[in-house]
Design brief:
The protein is α+β, with helices and mostly antiparallel strands. It is 22% helix and 27% strand. The protein starts with a helix and ends with a strand. This is SCO family protein.
Length: 728
């Protein structure tokens, strides 16, 4: 069995007898989805393969648009149209989004891209298979569309240029109901002996207590030199033989799955480091999660409503005083949302969109004592809200001093608001055995793991307790949502860390003050540290200007201000591109823009969050770092198992509607690609908010094959929280 067969990516039989593949795809909206579970299950689907370039010479998409019009209300409810690109390199999510707008695509017509292996799996399933007489069947995907109902197993074909009413009539023959075949399953792991062959180079370079389940051997340190405003980094060489994990999955860096806790290099067991087993899928849950219903309205939903209210009143020549008062209240409410002021009856109350409260996001793990006063555990409570592509948390730093030598827990309260549906997956980073017994003495970066993969629906609150290894190992917890990642991610850091001579709390307090909510003056001083080009800061500034205009009853000026607000609001909602007034560096592969204590990113080639050029070792990438805030940022880059190896554990959450059995759920050995934090100088304020941005360039050569988990992880180690931009 080869690696492709092991992942279920082989050229399967015709779709009428095999389950629809449940591979991960990316929609034209930039969201990741499971093809079967999210797009096909429970619906009739019309599947079409095309590229935007080919469609110019052999137009089919316009015909599909006419089919869409005939489907009416059925589209998006019980019928989905899936246009799958055959040219993932050119048809980026942004290019597909442009095509969708041009064709008038409505909800339910999805334009899809993804990793080449995933797209090849779908194409092989629907059009190419190895069971035709005399060899492989001819590829007829350009001229034929497939339609069917995965639940009933009924499938048919129709010419792509057939009359639209005929195609729509064929779809009406099917009903989106029936007895499911059962969810498709990935095949089990390959023989352990076969996988161990890939480990032999690593094992031969090991030392006592090294090699998975002990720490994997470490790579040679990266070489890092800085001359002027350019830093050049070359990473150490991989432990494994060369491979191309995204072309021929899973790659030589996949480790055999071992269903035990991990051990440090001293041979000591690291308790609570086995996330899942075949018999206990949620092995790190402490108790049963409690799920209740909450108000689902998100801050962006309320902001959009407020802007609409202000605009409507400002444009209405017949407005009365009651209308004007309503507009002024809407302005005040929008400012409250941005500042994180209390909002009645909203789950997001107290969570600011302006990231100025870092010093207040520090908590201590409270110890649990036995009858003799000995510490036997501990707990800390963390509250998060999930909406759009955001995770906001009331906790960005934890002081775990009280539980250095004992297991402890984090109790999460997870409020999922509009467009926030996802699987909760906190990814804990653990170091090796610490260099000394005191809190704040750390070992070498070792391993990270998904601690759970628990499904969460919009309009729900999930309270879930996760078991942690003794805090002497704990580095941070990276919470991410795969359905919109990047940028849906947030980090809780170990407050005891020191970066460039300062601990993490001091980095925040030196910028924003000890208590940025102590007074109105303290709040305004903290917000002033955020750059004027940061989209939430632009929106906040315009709203304050509009409040003055509304007080003077200058409604014509308010109309113009609302138009500018909508641009800033749109920039806020999409961090996979730069704000409109920030220019991409055409000489870089990737431009990152630090603003509002977070990171926007944009690839020069138009890709969303995927660096497809990185298929194997030796790949260079040029990254331009721009700083729009009025304080220093830093840059680091981390590998999630590409160089030292990663394992995969399959946890079935089908019964509760999750995705754990289809998606990576396991442990990855960490390598720090850019180990010395790179300073990105602050912006210089200018009149008219035309700041001069701080700037630095990183030229990075990656000498390990990528991990299929994640190609690399980029962040600011001094203001971590949501200052993250991960690359698939």
């Amino acid at each position: 069995m080869n690696r492709r067969e092991w992942l279920g990516l082989s050229d399967g039989a015709a779709c009428r007898v095999t389950p629809v593949p449940n591979v991960v795809v990316t929609t034209h909206e930039g969201r990741r989805a499971l093809f079967h579970d999210d797009l096909a299950r429970g619906r009739i689907v019309l599947v079409q393969f095309a590229s935007l370039a080919d469609d110019a010479g052999y137009p089919v998409l316009a015909n599909v648009a006419r089919v869409q019009a005939l489907l009416g209300e059925r589209l998006g409810r019980d019928v989905h149209i899936c246009t799958i690109t055959t040219d993932a390199q050119s048809d980026t999510p942004r290019a597909l989004a442009d095509a969708a707008r041009r064709l008038g695509a409505k909800p339910g017509w999805w334009f899809l891209t993804g990793e080449p292996a995933a797209l090849a799996t779908l194409k092989a399933h629907f059009f190419q298979h190895g069971h035709a007489h005399g060899g492989d069947a001819e590829d007829c995907s350009r001229g034929v569309m497939r339609y069917g109902n995965p639940a009933t197993g009924l499938w048919g074909s129709v010419p792509a240029k057939a009359e639209p009413d005929w195609i729509a009539e064929r779809l009406s023959w099917l009903a989106a109901r029936g007895t499911p075949h059962g969810a498709p399953r990935r095949r089990g792991p390959a023989a352990l002996a076969a996988l161990c062959v890939a480990l032999l180079p690593a094992m031969s370079r090991g030392e006592p207590h090294s090699g998975h389940r002990y720490p994997q051997p470490y790579l040679a340190a990266s070489t890092q030199t800085t001359v002027g405003d350019v830093t050049t980094v070359v990473t150490g060489a991989s432990l494994f033989e060369p491979s191309q994990p995204f072309v021929d999955p899973p790659g030589t860096n996949l480790l055999p799955t071992i269903y035990t806790n991990l051990f440090d290099s001293n041979g000591e067991e690291m308790l609570n480091t086995l996330p899942s087993t075949p018999t206990v899928p949620y092995n790190l849950h402490d108790g049963v999660p409690v799920v209740t219903t909450i108000d689902r309205v998100s801050p962006t939903t309320d902001l959009a409503d407020a802007l609409d209210r202000i605009d409507t009143v400002a444009r209405d020549a017949r407005r009365g005083r009651d209308d004007e008062d309503a507009a002024r209240r809407a302005i005040d409410r929008a400012i409250d949302i941005l500042e994180g002021n209390p909002i009645e009856n909203r789950a997001y109350s107290g969570f600011p969109l302006l990231h100025y409260t870092g010093p207040l996001k520090l908590k201590k793990v409270e110890p649990v004592l036995d009858a003799n006063g000995n510490t036997i555990g501990g707990n800390v409570n963390v509250h998060q809200i999930w909406y759009d592509n955001h995770i906001e948390s009331d906790t960005a730093m934890l002081d775990p001093s009280a539980v250095q030598g004992v297991p402890w827990t984090i109790t999460y309260t997870l409020d999922v608001l509009d467009r926030g549906r996802d699987d909760f997956s906190p990814f804990a980073f653990y170091d090796d055995a610490p260099s000394g017994p005191k809190p704040g003495e750390f070992g070498r970066p070792n391993v990270g793991m998904d601690q759970t993969f628990f499904p969460m629906d919009e309009g729900t609150r999930t309270v879930l307790k996760v078991k942690m290894a003794p805090a002497k190992y704990w580095s941070l917890t990276y919470t991410w949502g795969w359905r919109w990642h990047a940028p849906r991610a947030q980090v809780t850091e170990n407050r005891l860390k020191v970066v460039d001579g300062k601990d993490l709390y001091r980095w925040e307090a030196d910028v924003f003050g000890e208590n940025p909510r102590a007074s109105e003056a303290a709040k305004l001083a903290a917000i002033a540290k955020i750059g004027d080009r940061a989209p939430p800061k632009v929106l906040w500034r315009l709203l304050r200007d509009a409040r003055r205009s509304a007080a003077a009853r200058d409604w014509k000026r308010v109309v113009a201000q609302v138009a500018d607000m909508r641009v800033a609001f749109d920039d806020y909602k999409d961090r996979t591109r730069l704000p409109r007034d920030v220019k991409i560096d055409p000489d870089a592969d990737l431009t990152l823009f630090y603003a509002n204590n977070t990171i926007h990113g944009q690839f020069t080639d138009g890709a969303a969050t995927t660096f497809a050029k990185y298929q194997s070792r030796g790949t260079p990438i040029k990254i331009t770092l721009l700083n729009g805030d009025y304080y220093d940022h830093r840059y680091m880059n981390v590998d999630f198992g590409g160089g030292r190896g990663w394992e995969n554990q399959f946890k079935s959450s089908v019964r509760v509607g999750g995705s754990g059995c289809w998606f990576t759920f396991g442990r990855a050995y960490i390598n720090i690609n850019v180990a010395q934090p790179v300073r990105v100088p602050p912006a210089t304020p200018r009149k008219g908010h035309e700041d001069t941005l701080g700037r630095h360039r990183v030229n990075l050569t990656l000498n390990a094959d990528p991990s299929r988990r994640l190609r690399f992880y980029q962040f600011d180690p001094t203001h971590h929280d949501v200052a993250i931009f991960s690359i698939h």
